[in-house]
Amino acid sequence: MKPYFLTLSLTAILAFGAVNTAYATADGPDFYAVTRVAGTDSLALRHIASSRGRIVARIPFNAVRVQNKGDRSGSWCKVQYATSVGWASCQHLTESDGNRYYSTQGYTDRLNIRKTPSTSAAVVGTIPPLETGLQGTGECSASWCPVDYQGKRGWVGRRYLASWSF
C-alpha cells in the first residue's frame, strides 16, 4: 500500500507543478483591441505604469493590433502600438480577434447609417440608442466610421461610437 500512496503523491506533485509552470509562463494574448474608449477619445500609452507617467503616444479608440509585450504591473499592461512601446490601462484592453466592434452612445433617437460618409448621403439603415454589436468594416476617417449593423453596411458618425468587444 505504501508504494501506491507514494506513486499517487508523486503524480499529484508533478501534475500540480506542470499546471503551475504553465500558468507562470502564460503572458496573455498576442494582440489586444482597445475597448470601452469613446470615438472622440484615445487610449494613453505612458512611459511608466502610472497615470502620472508621461504620454508617449495615443492609441486610437478602435485599434485592434496592439501588441502585448508580456509584462503587467498592477492594472497596467506593457504594449506596443506602431513603433511606440509603453504602458496602457489593462481595463481598456481585450484580446483581439482582428475585428473592430462598437457600441453606440450620445444620442436618444435612432442613429442613421449613411451610404457614404456625409450627412447628406442616403440613409441605408438606423440603429437604436445604446446598441452593441456593430462591426467595424474598415478604417475610420476624422468624423466617420464604416460599420455593419444587422446586415446594413454604411457610415456612422464617429462621435456616436465607442470601442467594444464580444
Automatic annotation (TrEMBL):
<feature type="signal peptide">
    <location>
        <begin position="1"/>
        <end position="24"/>
    </location>
</feature>
<dbReference type="InterPro" id="IPR052354">
    <property type="entry name" value="Cell_Wall_Dynamics_Protein"/>
</dbReference>
<feature type="domain" description="SH3b">
    <location>
        <begin position="109"/>
        <end position="161"/>
    </location>
</feature>
<dbReference type="InterPro" id="IPR003646">
    <property type="entry name" value="SH3-like_bac-type"/>
</dbReference>
<protein>
    <submittedName>
        <fullName>SH3 domain-containing protein</fullName>
    </submittedName>
</protein>
<dbReference type="Pfam" id="PF08239">
    <property type="entry name" value="SH3_3"/>
</dbReference>
<keyword id="KW-0732">Signal</keyword>
